[in-house]
Amino acid sequence: MRNLNSDIEYLHNHNIDPRSREIYLHSATYGDDDNGVDFRSAVSLHKNLRYLNQLSFDPIIIHMHIPGGEWCDCMSMYDAIRLSPSPIAIIVYSRAESSGSIILQAADLRIMMPSSYTLIHYGSSFVDGDHKVAVSNLEWSQKEAAKMVDIFTDKLMDSPLVKEKKWRRVNAKKHILSQLDNKADWILYPDQCVQYGFTDGILGSAEFQYVEDVRKYLQKNY
Q1: What SS3 string covers the chain?
Q2: Rounded to a whole number, what is the distance in angstroms from the first to the last CA of the chain?
Q3: Among candidates 40, 207, 159, which has minimal Cα distance to 218?
Q4: Nearest to 194 by CA among 159, 165, 163
Q5: What is the pLDDT of residue 135?
Q6: What is the pTM of this model?
Q7: What would the pLDDT profile of 116-135 be if each residue is shown by its tens digit?
Q8: Distance between CA atoms of 91 and 116, rounded to whole angstroms?
Q9: Is the pLDDT of residue 216 over 90?
C-alpha cells in the first residue's frame, strides 16, 4: 500500500511523485512575487529527472506552472528535458511565459490547459562594466536570441500553419521575427499554439481528456 504521508512529503518538499513519475515545476520560493525560473528550480528539476531516469525509462509527466525567469537556468532545463532517455510530457498550467515557453518546446509531448497561454518575447538584457564587457555581453545576448528564434522555427516547420501556407524555413523564420519585432509580448492561446506547432494538444480535448491520456500517448508512441 502507498504511504500517504510519504507521498505528500515528496510532492510538497521535493516536487515529485516517484510512483507515478510526475514532477511539479514551479518557482522555488513562495511570496508575493513569482520569481519563476532560477538556479533553485533548475537544480530541483535536474535532480528529479536524474532520479526518475535511474529508476526506469518509463514516461515522465511534468506539471509546469512557471512564468519565465533566468535564461541560462531555463536552457539548462531545456537541455535536461530534451536529452532525457525517458519520454517526457509537459502540461502547462496558467501560462508558459518568456523562458517558460522555451522549456515547453523541449518535451516530447506538449499539452496546455484550456485557460493557459504562452507569451514569447526577447526578454530583458542588462549590460554593465567597461566597453569590452558590454560588447561581449551584447554579442552573447544576440546569439541567445537567435537560438530562441531557431527553436520556435523548428517547431513551426512541423505545424498546420506551415502546411497551409506552404512556407519554406526562411518564410517561417521571417514570420516569427516579424511577430517578435511588432509585438513586445507575443501572446498565443492554446488553439493558436496548436496551429503554430508550439504545443501538441489541449487537456480536456477528445484526444487528451485526462492526464492519464497523456501518459497513455507517451507509452504508445515513445
Answers
A1: CCCHHHHHHHHHHHCEECCCCEEEEECCCCCCCCCCECHHHHHHHHHHHHHHHHHCCCCEEEEEEECCECHHHHHHHHHHHHCCCCCEEEEEEEEEECHHHHHHHCCCEEEECCCCEEEECCCCCCCCCCHHHHHHHHHHHHHHHHHHHHHHHHHHCCCHHHHHHCCCHHHHHHHHHHHHHHCCCEEECHHHHHHHCCCCEECCCCCCCCHHHHHHHHHHHC
A2: 29
A3: 207
A4: 159
A5: 77
A6: 0.90
A7: 999 999 866 666 667 777 77
A8: 10
A9: yes
Query: Which of 6-16 are b and which e, b meaning 16 or more Cβ less than 10 Å from the residue's Cβ?
Result: eeeebeeeebb
What are the grid coordinates assigned to 95, written together?
Answer: 501560462
- Alpha-carbon gap, residue 6 to 200, rounded angstroms: 34
Q: Cβ(63)–Cβ(89) under 8 Å?
A: no
- Measuring CA to CA, which residue among 66, 49, 79 is closest to residue 116? 66
Least confident of 74-78, 90-94, 140-144, 150-154: 140-144
User: CA 200, CA 181: separation in Å to the nearest integer?
Assistant: 26
Whole-number Å distance between alpha carbons of 148 and 142: 10
Q: What's the pLDDT band for 30 if we cut at 50, 70, 90?
A: low
pLDDT score at 162: 96
- Please report the pLDDT score of residue 215 as a whole number: 96
* Residue 139 pLDDT: 86
